[in-house]
Write a structure and sequence with these properties.
By secondary structure, the protein is α/β, with parallel strands linked by helices. The protein has helices at residues 18-30, 42-45, 66-90, 120-125, 146-160, 185-193, 254-260, 262-272, 290-300, 308-317, 324-335, and strands at residues 2-10, 14-17, 50-53, 106-111, 135-140, 165-173, 196-205, 218-230, 237-242, 245-250, 280-285, 340-348, 352-362, 381-384.
Length: 386
């Protein structure tokens, strides 16, 4: 297992109220095409109250080249990542003592909203005193599933190297993908949902000396993961790239897929861990939108109150793609007052899902006995059609 010791989150300094964003889109899109008026209802029904962008709203009123957008992505990705990493390693909410940069063995950098070579993690290492031997593992294109995938890959790294300490850095500046002349419905829906945020998680292996740095009573440990892939689902979620940058792809079928496709795989994952939905104390799900949260509740047969923290994050910050689930996990860690089972869940392009089994344990223990341990799972990767 691998313990999540600390999480820090950051947003850029340009807050935008949802009604302000709606008015902006109305002026930009509806005046040129009155038929778009009816689509703006998504700004009212999505329950989002406020989001944070990487530029003041008037910046988006001008037509921007992909280079302009990406240059701003690089600028803010570095700045916010550095701030979040510093806070994660010195957090007085999670750690008894500050963690030296030289203790970090690997950085998993997760993003889907901008590009850079060398990748942003190299630029971060030129600003912070990490060891020159720190391993860099950039993960690009995983979209909303990226935060859960990053934690899963960090867990697997710590399984191979039990003394290792890993940072998962999720950077998503979704506002910079805005297309002011795109009248596609997906663009309007995306504009009503997407926001910018950065989250950093410190993951320590079972034998890491950093296990002694725990300050709170309970911490989550990742004990199992599973990836699920839906064949021929490339058009469900993702980006279409043009000379103007990224254009969002959203299929109307996503809530239906959650209800019809996802439960089988989640129940199978539980089965091989000797658990069931009834044993879940903490739901750490990526809140892709209001309809997504409602679909989770219906699909798994649980009360919508189970996703209260996820809904709160959606309302306060919007959908920050891969970073969002770490915002949810951070809040859950701050509120956790007892041992228990948690499930991390996020969906992403592919179409795909990522599951994490989390066990909240007392800070001075390494886990509790599960109801029944199964060992007949054929693979950590499940690939199925339909």
């Amino acid at each position: 297992m691998a313990t999540i010791l600390s999480i820090a989150t950051k947003v850029p300094p340009f807050p935008v109220a949802q009604q302000e964003a709606k008015k902006f889109v109305h002026q930009l899109l509806v005046q040129s095409n009155p038929e778009m008026e009816r689509l703006l209802r998504v700004f009212d029904t999505g329950e989002i109250q406020r989001r944070y962008f990487s530029a003041p709203l008037p910046w988006f009123a001008e037509r921007r080249t992909w280079q302009e957008k990406n240059d701003r992505y690089v600028q803010w990705a570095i700045r916010l990542s550095v701030e979040a990493i510093e806070e994660c390693l010195t957090s007085q909410r999670f750690l008894q003592q500050s963690i030296p940069y030289g203790s970090i063995d690997a950085i998993f950098f997760v993003s889907s909203t901008g590009v850079a070579t060398p990748t942003i993690d190299a630029k971060i290492m030129n600003q912070l005193p990490f060891s020159l031997h720190t391993k860099r593992i950039p993960l690009w294109g995983l979209g909303c599933a990226g935060g859960a995938s990053g934690l899963a890959r960090a867990f697997e790294y710590c399984q191979a190297y039990p003394m290792a300490n890993v940072l998962v850095v999720c950077v998503e500046l979704c506002s910079l993908t805005f297309q002011g002349s795109d009248l596609n419905k997906s663009n309007v829906v995306g504009t009503s949902l997407f926001a910018d945020g950065v989250a950093v998680a410190l993951v320590a292996g079972e034998a890491s000396p950093l296990q002694k740095a725990k300050m709170r009573s309970y911490y989550p440990a990742v004990t199992a993961t599973q990836s699920v892939f839906l064949r021929d689902g490339e058009d469900i979620m993702g980006w279409r790239i043009s000379d103007n940058g990224f254009h969002v792809i959203f299929a109307r079928s996503i809530p239906t897929l959650i209800q019809q496709w996802l439960p089988l795989h989640l129940h199978q994952f539980f089965h091989y861990q000797g658990l069931s939905v009834e044993h879940v104390d903490y739901w750490i799900v990526h809140p892709g939108g209001r309809k997504v949260l409602e679909a989770y509740a219906q699909a798994f047969g649980v009360e919508e109150a189970s996703f209260q923290i996820a809904r709160k994050i959606l309302q306060r910050f919007g959908n920050m793609s891969s970073a969002t689930i770490l915002f949810v996990l951070q809040e859950t860690m701050l509120q956790a007052t007892k041992p228990g089972v948690g499930i991390g869940l996020a969906l992403g392009p592919g179409f795909s899902a990522e599951f994490l089994l989390l066990e909240w344990t007392a800070a001075n223990t390494m886990g509790f006995k599960r109801i029944e341990q199964r060992s007949d799972l054929p693979s950590t990767q499940v690939v199925m059609k339909g």
